[in-house]
């Protein structure tokens, strides 16, 4: 059995992870003072939660019904977040449900357009995390450029390239 999960958005260590009751997504809390919700297959987060005063996140948990996320941080606070950030709390009228379903359908239908794709992918993150991610991208680009040059100026087959996904595997359990 191979245990591998690749998430791309964190700039510091992930401290705690919890799966939703449905098993279709998971929440992760990080040392970079953010809480993120990911689809079960990994990749980029669909939601980012943070506040100015929140410190390093040491515990995250989904509620029993999967509608809330709880996080405990170094500043001795437990915060409650909505699992679906734009979801309205309280009773929704049938007309409002219809409107929300229609808006989701529109986004799903036109998600291939560049303007809609940019809006859907946008995540506001604190300045410190943004700068750290930018620096991390620079380092990754430099490493990629270095590997390309090594391959280009070495004998064919002498440099072996290990895929990024395999680099992140710590151990394989049989």
Automatic annotation (TrEMBL):
Domain of life of the organism encoding this protein: Eukaryota
Keyword hit for Repeat: yes
SMART domains referenced in this protein's UniProt entry, alphabetically: WD40
Record InterPro entries: Quinoprotein_ADH-like_sf, Sof1, WD40/YVTN_repeat-like_dom_sf, WD40_rpt, WD_repeat_DCAF13/WDSOF1
One Pfam family cited in the UniProt record for this chain: Sof1
Annotated compartments: Nucleus, Nucleolus
SUPFAM superfamilies on file: Quinoprotein alcohol dehydrogenase-like (SSF50998)
Cellular component terms per the entry's GO annotation: small-subunit processome
UniProt KW Nucleus keyword: yes
GO BP: any one term: maturation of SSU-rRNA from tricistronic rRNA transcript (SSU-rRNA, 5.8S rRNA, LSU-rRNA)
Name of the protein described by the UniProt record: WD repeat and SOF domain-containing protein 1
PROSITE patterns with a match to the protein in the record: WD_REPEATS_2, WD_REPEATS_REGION
Family to which this protein belongs: Belongs to the WD repeat DCAF13/WDSOF1 family.
Region of interest called Disordered, as start-end residue ranges on this chain: 153-174
UniProt KW keywords: Nucleus, Repeat, WD repeat
Domain Sof1-like protein residue range list: 83-169
UniProt repeat feature WD, residue ranges: 50-91
């Amino acid at each position: 059995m191979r245990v591998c999960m690749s998430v791309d958005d964190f700039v510091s260590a992930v401290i705690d992870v919890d799966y939703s009751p449905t098993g279709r997504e998971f929440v992760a809390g990080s040392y970079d003072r953010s809480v993120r919700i990911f689809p079960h297959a990994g990749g980029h987060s669909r939601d980012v939660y943070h506040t100015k005063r929140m410190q390093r996140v040491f515990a995250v948990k989904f509620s029993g019904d999967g509608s809330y996320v709880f996080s405990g941080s170094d500043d001795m606070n437990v915060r409650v977040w909505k699992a679906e950030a734009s979801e309205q709390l309280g009773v929704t009228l049938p007309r409002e449900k219809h409107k929300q379903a229609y808006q989701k359908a529109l986004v799903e239908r036109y998600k291939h357009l560049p303007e809609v794709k940019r809006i859907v992918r946008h995540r506001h993150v604190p300045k410190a995390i943004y700068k750290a991610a930018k620096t991390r991208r620079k380092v990754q680009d430099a490493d990629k450029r270095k590997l390309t040059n090594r391959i280009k100026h070495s004998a064919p087959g002498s440099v072996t390239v290990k895929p990024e996904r395999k680099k992140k595997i710590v151990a394989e359990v049989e």
